[in-house]
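Problem 3 from the worked examples.
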Amino acid sequence: MRGGMQPAKLGMFELLQAALRHCQNNMLAFIGFALLPMVPLIVVGLLALAMPRGIQDMITPVLQVIALGVSGLSAGMVVLLAYDRLAGVTRPVSAYVTRVSGLWLPLFVLSAVSALLMLIGLYLVILPGLIAMALFLPLVSVILFEDAGMEGLVASFKLVAPRLWPTVGLCVMLVLVSLAIVLAFVILGAALATTTLGLILLVPIVYALSALLAALHAVTGMFLYMHLRELDLPGRSVVTE
């Protein structure tokens, strides 16, 4: 693995550092891959802005729920690319699209379910939300690497459960880093909002922020998966040409 990176031997803090470095080194590619499945949703969302207020109120909750599932497709694209970048493998974009498309149902449904569980837990009491986040952080990697299908939630739960509290600690650090990134973008947005051009630029910046955070969570989940499975190098191809 490049740079002597060995996830099986890293602690949780080092795992997050490794994920951040990997995202930094491949930022534009990861953002692009994360945005790719979001394009239809973004287009529909923009079209909805031109609709009457009543229709917007009906469409918005539906789009929000769909977005939870689409996040799984985005994470799948990023995880496959991140995995190949670690192995030094180059593939056409179509190979990643084909692989994710073949697993769209578990990626979409289970990502939406896990996200809802996490959001409910965070809303009621913070700790249950963090526990849900920890248990399902490697969910996308489990689906992609182990062909877990609709059993992905159970497989992810079983994988994380023996190391639950260290993984909760990882999630706390991941949330703090994500908040710091959001804060930096808020400061940038406040500066841009003072001009007309800045307001126009805010739209792609918001989407880029969303994609960046999605990529960071996906890559962190991949490194966690490799750590828990004691993998130091990609063991087999998970992308079909």
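Problem 4, a separate protein:
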Amino acid sequence: MLLGLISFAPASRAEESSDRIEALNSRAWQKRGSFGMAGFGSYAFNDPMLIRGGGGVRLSWWPRSLVGLSIEAAGGVQGPTNAAKAAQRELKSRLRETGASWNAVSSLELSAADGKAAFGTAIVGFELLLRAGLGVQASEEALRSKPVLASMAALGTRWFLGPRWAFELNLSWRQGSLVRRIDGASVSSRDMVVALEGGVVARLGGVQ
């Protein structure tokens, strides 16, 4: 019994030491000089009268580990919610059009902080990121078909699943000006979309 206890103690310390080494050696991407390609989906939740969903592609380049430049193109569709349909029936109000929209944005990305999290026996690296940019957008809902200026910002996390793959989860904000027809008159208004975005990022080039 005593021998069993003596032999167990060093093994336990070795396992703990191995866990610590694994945690210390677990590292995020070395992004400097590398490129990234991401595919993402989004769902907007700020308008109770509209269901909005879509997706897009983002290409990134990181001249430094904490700073990146990206360009993205995204599209989406929208339709009235059940609440909007009920209001239309009861109040004879006019529903906003169902249709498609698209946007193209170039942005600056900053890695604000990073860290590691334990999921069972796995140690996963992550970073907090901030993204802001300008671009253009267009919508079938707008009377004018030409694109208009749009701005965007996002706060998110990037979870490193391996040396080349990561998962992103972002809260994004986008805004642009649209011209709509309301009660027969053309009215200029701001179109704001707050959405939850999730997607997979592939890193190309750079240091392993």
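Solution to problem 4. The beta strands are 34-44, 50-64, 67-80, 99-119, 122-139, 148-160, 165-182, 185-204. The chain has one domain: 32-204.
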